[in-house]
Amino acid sequence: MDENKMKKDISGDGRETEKDKQLESWKENSDGKGLTTNHGVKVDHTDDSLKAGQRGPTLMEDFHFREKMMHFDHERIPERVVHARGSAAHGYFQLYEPVPELTKAKIFNDPSKQTPVFVRFSTVVGFRGSADTVRDVRGFATKFYTEEGNWDLVGNNMPVFFIQDAIKFPDLVHAIKPEPHNEMPQASAAHDNFWDFVSLMPESIHMIMWVLSDRAIPKSYSTMQGFGVHTFRLINAEGKSRFVKFHWKPVNGVYSLVWDEAQKIAGKDPDFNRRDLWDLIEAGVYPEYELGMQIVEEEDEFAFDFDLLDPTKIIPEELVPVKIVGKMVLNRNPDNFFAETEQVAFHPGHVIPGIDFTNDPLLQGRLFSYLDTQITRLGGTNFNEIPINRPLAEVHNNQRDGFMRQTINKGRTNYSPNSLRGGHPLPVPEEMGGYRHYMEKVEGKKIRERSNSFKDFFSQAKLFYDSMSDTEKKHILEAFHFELGKVEVMEVRQRMVYMMANVDMELARKIAAGIGADPPEDEKMVREAARDARPRVTGRKSVDVSPALSQENLKGTSIKGRKVAILVDNGFDYQAVAKVREMLMDNDAMVHIVSQFHGMIKSSTGEELKTDKNHVTTASVLYDAIFIPGGEESVQAMKKQGDVIHFINEAYKHCKPVGITGEAVELLSMSATGVTETQMGVRSDMGVVTAGKDVNMSEFVMKFKDAIMEHRHWGREKTGVPA
Ligand code: HDE
User: Which of 66, 501, 535, 715 could be 508's S-S partner, Cβ–Cβ 3.0 to 4.6 Å?
Assistant: First the structure.
């Protein structure tokens, strides 16, 4: 404020002074708390630094400025070396039926209890600010705040991994991250270093099949499977151990994007998956997942044609069905991204009594890595005291000091054994809930060697490929063409072709044809690419195809959470929009009204609709389906809008449902879909659902809903739509 004016006000002349006004306004708006410094002192002004006169230098004694700036200077912590970009949600897990025969873990024995959870989904390769829809593995990490302590199930959306031994992890991650000399490409495996590594690592090929499949571009975290990957152990109260693989199965089905769409979304809305998760929860359409277990008795350890300890292998669900034990519901968004999503620290070693490890060499290495990484990332050993990491179970131990210690422990003893505090905290006997590691008999020489039982690198890669639908196979081939097409060193492309010949000769030939490599006819080179691979073991439990692997068989039975754009302009058919919107809302789908400009749009009968998006703030790739109602004036306007025609073409190209009624069917003949205009009755053809004027809208709405349920209409993929 002007210094002279202030003086005048203070001298007073009976009128309300500037200061009085400020005070009144503060009282009106204050929540009774007010802005403070970090040491709790109330701050009177935060928009100007303390200066020697209005135009003078800034003063060192301005403790508020220094504190504010210094905090800002240090506001970034090292991002996760992998899984840097993540999005998270709170929720709960609830058991369906107790399973005491399998595990003594209390979370699996009390169906009346809701155990709080915090789940973080992530991409692996990209930095914190990278796009969501890149081709990558997705992390699916769950922290269960159980009454017995925290249990972290730190899984992925793919059931296998690239490598068999943790010691290869730094190599894998160095190879897949942007190349060190020029830090390119961002969030992508499509570069020479990665494929050079893969072409020399046949153990990675099963995972490569998953990464080049549609699983690597999930549409929504709410419709994505999760897997614990490793074989763990469950221990019951009698001390009996069984092997277990954990599965998360989304209640609303499993869906992916298509590659062209995923790349466009990365530009249009890099936060696509994050926003979707947030919006679903805000709308009360809570993501739900069932937890499943594949149980293998100890005596069946060697019953399969692969080694249960090998993390590059699945247990086909046709051999060991997934027993569903409970459900997780994500129903609350975090309050603060940094405090929760960024600071959450997962660790596969956070287990509770009743859950134990196997000797999977990848898991064993992870047990070291996660604890270690938090110390750098979160600044010290006290990260478990950060609110999001704090267990609900009480913590009593002899840990005291270290950076950022939060707990003020009372008493003089911090060691065990002690007599000065009666020995407390006392170790807890197993019978009273103390964690006792499973007493597995172990014997062996100290060696750096891979078990021969891990060396069938290709059978399950082939199993995966053979279990895909034709469309999924086509997508895998296209992904190979994209990824290897970006590789500059020809020898690497060629080596990958030889490698893939060990999985499927026909696939390898098709890959070669798309990347300018020789077909894999040289048997010696094919064998060399396989390195020390061993053939599949015969005479054990095995399958040649696993229908459970194909997403075509994993569709949901509702349209819950699907996003539909309704394109309108002034003069649209209100009744048609009302009917479609009602159906979508009734089924928990999300609707956006899209028009050329933001604002209110008037129907032909005078009703008004507020637009949610205009043509420049959205695009067809951000929706699962589109609907365009009739209305003479609206359709005439849209005919002149290239964006509308592009919307139709692109949705059509990506095989999405396109619903069109009344005069709007004329727009089809302007599009590149090749669909001929029809004004007659209701027609549904490969996801294009049309209805002429004056038809029964209920029939249209039903058919449109079915088309949305189908998600993608792959029969259309053959058509070369320019969009
Ligand atoms: Fe991780 N992994 N990982 N990983 N991982 C990390 O831990 C590591 C592996 C997974 O949302 C890091 O806190 C090693 C398999 C998820 O915060 C790090 C090996 C699976 C997340 C680390 C693996 C995963 C991570 C980075 C090979 C699926 C994100 C920051 C032995 C079962 C968790 C951090 C979150 C994060 C190490 C392999 C899943 C560096 C050494 C297999 C979901 O510690």
Answer: 501
Domain annotation covers residue 496: yes
Question: 53 has which bridge partners?
Answer: none
Q: 217 and 316 in one domain? A: yes
Q: Domain range spanning residue 703?
A: 563-716
Query: What's the pTM?
Result: 0.95
DSSP percent split of the chain into helix, strand, coil, nearest 5: 35, 15, 50
Average pLDDT of the chain, as a whole number? 95
Any ligand 1 atom below 6 A from CB of 578: no
187 and 303 together in one domain: yes
**Percent of the chain whose predicted confidence (pLDDT) is above 90:** 93
Q: Are 526 and 577 in the same domain?
A: no
Instruction: Choose one of 370, 372, 378 to mutate for the ligand 1 pocket test, by most ligand atoms within 8 angstroms of C-beta.
Output: 370
Does the pLDDT at position 4 exceed 60? Answer: no
Q: What is the pLDDT of residues 127-154, one digit of tens each?
A: 999 999 999 999 999 999 999 999 999 9
Q: Whose CA is nearest to atom 9 of ligand 1?
A: 366
Can you name the residues that pair with 691 across neighbouring β-strands? 661, 682
Do 643 and 692 sit in the same domain of this protein? yes
On whether both 611 and 573 belong to a single domain, the answer is yes
Residue 83 designated active-site: yes
Lowest mean pLDDT among 4-13, 31-40, 159-168: 4-13
pLDDT at 398 over 70: yes
Asked if 583 and 631 sit in the same domain, the reply is: yes
Q: What is the pLDDT of residue 696?
A: 87
Ligand 1 centroid, distance to 119 Cα (angstroms): 14
Closest CA to 416 of 434, 433, 430, 428: 428
CATH number of domain containing 600: 3.40.50.880
- Kindly tell me if the per-residue pLDDT of 6 is higher than 50: no
Residue 288 lies in a domain: yes
Does residue 156 carry a catalytic annotation?
A: yes
Instruction: Confirm or reject: Cβ of 365 under 6 Å from ligand 1.
Output: yes
CATH number for 507: 1.20.1370.20
Ligand 1 pocket check for 375: Cβ under 6 Å: no
pLDDT at 5 over 80: no
Q: Nearest to residue 334, comparing CAs of 142, 88, 114?
A: 88
Asked whether residue 558 is domain-assigned, the answer is: no
pLDDT-derived band at 251, boundaries 50, 70, 90: very high
The secondary structure of 394-462, three-state, reads CCCCCCCCCCCCCCCCCCCCCCCCCCCCCCCCCCCCHHHCCCCCCCCCCCCCCCCCCCHHHCCCCHHHH
- Whether residue 3 is predicted with pLDDT greater than 50 in this model: the reply is no
Number of domains in the chain: 3
| Same domain for 649 and 528 | no
Q: Which ligand 1 atom is at minimum distance from the Cα of 161? A: 42
Q: Are residues 119 and 250 in the same domain?
A: yes
Residue 183: inside a domain: yes
Q: What is the CATH number of the domain that holds 301?
A: 2.40.180.10
Tell me the pLDDT tens digit for each residue of 472-530.
999 999 999 999 999 999 999 999 999 999 999 999 999 999 999 999 999 999 999 99
What spacing in Å lies between the alpha carbon of 81 and ligand 1's midpoint?
9
Whether residue 111 is preceded by a cis peptide bond, meaning omega within 30 degrees of 0, is: no
Per the residue annotation, which of 90, 109, 150, 156 is the catalytic one? Answer: 156
Active-site option among 83, 347, 711, 713: 83
How is residue 35 written in tokens? Answer: 């802005």
Among 217, 251, 225, residue whose Cα is nearest residue 140: 225
